Structures are given as structure tokens and as C-alpha cells.
Amino acid sequence: MKLSSVVRWGLGASLLVVGAGACSSSRQQVVEQETRPADSLAAYYPLAVGNRWTYRVNGRSDRTVDVQVLKEEDGYFHDNQGGQLSVDGFGVRDRKRYLLRGPLTEGNQWTNVVSVSSTERYQILQAGVPCEAPAGSFQNCVRVEARNRVDGQTTLVNALTFAEGVGLVRIVVSAEKSNGERMPQTWLELASFKLQDSGR
Fold first, then answer.
1. What is the pTM of this model?
2. Please, which residues have CB within 8 angstroms of residue 195's CB and are 6 or more apart in sequence?
3. What is the pLDDT of residues 80-94, one digit of tens each?
4. How far is CA 17 from the centre of its chain?
5. CA-to-CA separations, 11 to 53, 93, 109, in angstroms, rounded
6. DSSP 8-state class, residue 35
């Protein structure tokens, strides 16, 4: 898998929309229940034009990928890698899939049909756990595993780690053979980040 494909699938969701409209008091409780998941999920991918994340590729400080939010258009935030992300009442998504979906609890699963011949299966492996990357240590993280069968012998496994208030901190892509053996393909880890209005 080319690095650009990894960035578009794993990172490619570099953004999200946090939108909540005003409503009448008679519907306030219902609206709060509908928006609460988006609000908590939005914390795991803070978005604003100008936000920037730099990732080391395969642990090399001389090989990096920079992701920067360039604009917001049609309800999606667009980045310089071709990624487009939004948040709705169900989770963080790009135009084809949910990368993170509530509730943020261990074992939560969902499926994305991204084409006629491609179905991705996601599961939250851990939630509310610490994680680390070259950019720092983070207390409240969620680890997600995405699986997509390539053929009868191989499944592509994409492990994503999100940190609250930061975004994606790690992406590990492996090819898993039918016997369960995993062969690492590539990984990205957060080296630095700059978020608007956060002091970071």
C-alpha cells in the first residue's frame, strides 16, 4: 500500500466538524442527547483551520508527513493531504467511513462499506488509556483497529490511536495472513502538533 493511501485512510481523516445549533427549550433534552456523542468524539480530533500535525514515518525523524487543515467547506474540514473530515451525531467520519464512532467504550464495533468490493470492520480495543508518541504522553486515549480483507489470504489491519484534545497520535498498518501472522507495513507517530486557540 502506498504511503499516500495510508495517509488518506489512516490520517486521511484529519479533521472534524463540531456543530450544534440552537433549539427550543421543549426539545433541549433530546438535542443534548443527540449532540453529546459528537461533542465527546470531537475532542479526539480537534479541528480548526490552521491546525497542524507532523508525523514521523517508520520512526525516522528525517522522514515526516505534515498534515495541516487548510479550509472548511460543505461541512468538511479539508487538509493538505487530501483528507476531509466531519463529525455528526454518530462519530468522526470522512466521506466514505467512520474512523471513530460512539460510544467510546471498549468492544464497540461498526462496519463501513466503502465500495462494492470493500468492507471495513472497526472495533475499539481500548478507551480511556494512556498513550505515548514522540510528541508527548497523553492520558485519555482510544485505540481502534480497522480490518479490511484484501483477498482470501490477506487482511489489511490499520491500528489507530486517538488522544483527547490532540487527535491521531499513531497509525500502524499491517498485513495479516490467514494464519494470524502480521507483517508490519508502515507506521506513523505524532512528532509535533500545533492547535489553534489551545496554547499547544
1. 0.79
2. 46, 48, 51, 166
3. 999 999 988 888 999
4. 13
5. 10, 11, 20
6. H
Q: Residue 114 in contact with residue 156, Cβ under 8 Å?
A: no
Q: How many helices (H) and strands (E) does the chain have?
A: 2, 12
Strand residues in 7-163 grouped as ranges (E) = 52-57, 60-73, 76-79, 84-87, 91-93, 98-101, 109-115, 118-133, 136-149, 154-163
Choose among 190, 195, 187: nearest CA to 66.
Answer: 190
Q: Alpha-carbon distance 35 to 51, whole Å?
A: 23
Question: CB-based burial of residue 117 (10 Å sphere; 0-12 exposed, 13-18 middle, 19+ buried)?
Answer: exposed
For the record, the C-alpha cell of 134 comes out as: 514522540
Cell representation of residue 168: 491521531
